[in-house]
Hints:
The complex is a heterodimer. Chain A is an alpha/beta fold. In chain A, 30% of the residues lie in helices and 25% in strands. Chain A has eight helices and 14 strands. Chain B is built from 16 helices and 14 strands. Chains A and B meet through helix 1, helix 2, strand 8 and helix 8 of A and helix 8 and helix 14 of B.
Amino acid sequence: MSEFELRLGWLYPTLMSTYGDRGNVICLQQRCQWRGIAVTVVPLDQETDPETFKTVDVVVGGGAQDRQQEIVMRDLQGAKADRLRSQLDAGIPGVFTCGSPQLLGKYYEPGEGQRIEGLGLLDLVTKHPGLNVPRCIGNVVFELTATPLADDLKAMLEEGQKPIAIGFENHGGRTYLGDVQPLGKVIKGYGNNGEDGWEGAFHRNAIATYSHGPLLPKNPLIADWLIQTALRQKYQQAIELTSLDDRLATQARAALLKRLELPTLAEKS
Amino acid sequence: MNGLDRIRLGAAVAIAKTTTAIVKGLKLGAASVLPGSIARRIHPHILPLLFEQVRLGVILIVGTNGKTTTSLLLREILETQGWRVTHNATGANLINGLITALLADTNLIGTLRTDYGILEVDENILPLLLKDCRPRYILALNLFRDQLDRYGEVDTISRRWRKAIAPLPAETVVVVNADDPTLNYLGQNLAQSSGQTVRFFGLSEPKLYLKAIQHAVDSIYCPNCGASLDYQGVYLSHLGDYTCPSCGFAKNQPDLDSNDWGQILIGVYNKYNTLAAGLLAQEIGVGRAEINQAIQSFKAAFGRAEELTVQGKHVRILLSKNPVGMNETIRAVHDIQAQGQSSVSLVILNDRIPDGTDVSWIWDVDMEQLVEQGGTIIVSGDRVFDMALRIEYSPHPEDLNLIVEPDLQQAVDKAIAHTPATETLHILPTYSAMLEVRKLLTGREIL
């Protein structure tokens, strides 16, 4: 597949990579390289020209500590915000974990200090209930339900299998969705707020989720969906990916599902 | 201490000591936490009362990495002076563990007979502890991202530390790592506004600079104004020589010249541990010759660069419990690999409470350093497949022999079998994995 190439935009790599989030970048990069697809990783940060935001084919964003998140939110405004928004509105795929969904939402109210305005791309708000309220921490399993993502993934799976994502969540903030699709339905864990059973959000081809782990290495199907979608958007044609040996990921998934007493959700290896 | 306090303290001590005897007698464990927990119920203020009785003062050691190694070195230095030292040597560093350690050296009516207390303290409980306990010295080693599922974030922790230390009496001595911007800033603040004596240790050896900044880096932003710091060079993680181009904040000149100091064990991280213990000992008044003597005769704490011989093979255990720690142990192994003295490593990843239940941190480790020279890597532990996956995604030569072995005993056997007699087997475990593997290798339990 060496005729293809992708530019992978990485939002604020030094500010927003708290929970092994670069694993998502490594995963996409390697899965492309193993297939001969050339990848250029493009940092999108304070030093980046706003026009560069228009040149990327897929976007990855991770989590930040509160202070770092404030620096990002101050920087990601004006032209940069407009470019990113129009890219994602146009259907560029992306995966945003932890702090990034808060960034894409309407606002974030930290435990201490002032409300921080977000990009407003996703109709969701996040509130931190204060440092004395326990954080949502633990392994998380959810079924992907957002369309068209869920249908695309089902087509990649064996007949009758549900698209299941596995990760780890650790967030103080609670997210509440407005007029936006949830990413999936929680099977184990807290999800957006521990109350309504939803996890994440989905807009056009952008995935927002509290599930790190990091997300993609243990959910290679989602990684491949992102690559495939990025190629389709860029080359305007359906492109079939060559398959890779994912036995270790399958074993890692099976081991965790077994521990969480959900063995029936595991794929056959 | 008033009369009633004395009686209740006596009762608390007596009951706690009985508990220790029972727990140990029945072989229920090493009794490193429970006696403290019981004593605290009987006398809630037991810890400050115990602190007051330490003759020359309590030394608190905080930081993400290096607490145990630094404590042990400091203890050895102080003991060469003939002082009695009480130390929470089992690493039980929460309130009940501290009480238990101090109680162990009291007599039955609650009189503590010790000259110095060296207490390793969990970074999160320092503020709680300082509410009513008065240490004589506080040594802040470093602040890295560690087990965020338990600890929250680096910035929050340093802010809480500052608030907690500021009201302490002026005779308190605070020793901080100048190479860590967050702690240097904390030290500057305390010196200027709170009046405590602050001393700085750090490296002044540009020849040790890393070629590139490692990924597992937390604070490369100015703790004062938030601008990006300019680094002349980095020694490890975010520790280095830096200035802020925006507000002028800069590393303090260390109160010692690291070029004049030897070090314990291997690795740059142990250089920091050496300087930290050395500077604190100097503050106490120990002479350089005696300090140097202790540095030279120092032996590793269990699982921290500890060396063993197993079935005729040389084995070194390097505790690897968080991204910064593991980057540094890998750096040390990498150098030994490059000299052709090690080609087999065993990496064990657990996700129990003492390890942190979130294993995503392994993606912040520069694992390719470990695998880029090929050889054999055996992975094991509760999260064996997560570690295997991490290695699969790290660029490595095609002939890398990756062995995935969930059973730890089998993994250890394979690792020893694969190791040539002329080489060293390196074992890189998380905390609970270190206890397990050590038990398998030595046939003895530690805790």
